[in-house]
Amino acid sequence: MAQKRNIVVATPRGCVYTVTTPNGSITTRLKWAQDFAPKKKAAFMRAQEFVDSECLRYMNPMTPRLTGAMVKSATLGTVVGSGSIEYLVPYARRQYYEHEEKARWFERMKATRKEPILKGAMRIVSG
User: What are phi and psi of 17, to 5 degrees?
Assistant: First the structure.
C-alpha cells in the first residue's frame, strides 16, 4: 500500500508533512526548500558586511588620532564581511589599551551603538 500524506504545512523555508505508513503509524517529516540555505547564507554574509562597516564608521571618531594613520590602517586592514577588524599600525594595540582619553574605543562604541547595528543586521537577515 502506498504512503499517504495527511497534513502538509508549507513555508518559504520548506514544508512539514505527516505520512501514514502501511502499518498505520504516522510519521512527521521535514523537507527543506532547496534554495533556503543559500539565501540565508547570502543574507548572513550581507549582515556581517553591514556590521563590519558600521563598526568601522562608528569607531572612526572615537579612535585616537594624530595624523589619521590608525583610522586608515583599520580601513585598509579590515576585510569587510570577515567579522574581524584589523589595525595595521604596530602601535594600535598599545593605544587601544593605554590611551589616556580614548582607550578601548570599540567597547565604548559598542556600548552606545550596539542597538542600531543589531537592528540593521536583523533587517538584512529577515528581509
Answer: -145, 155
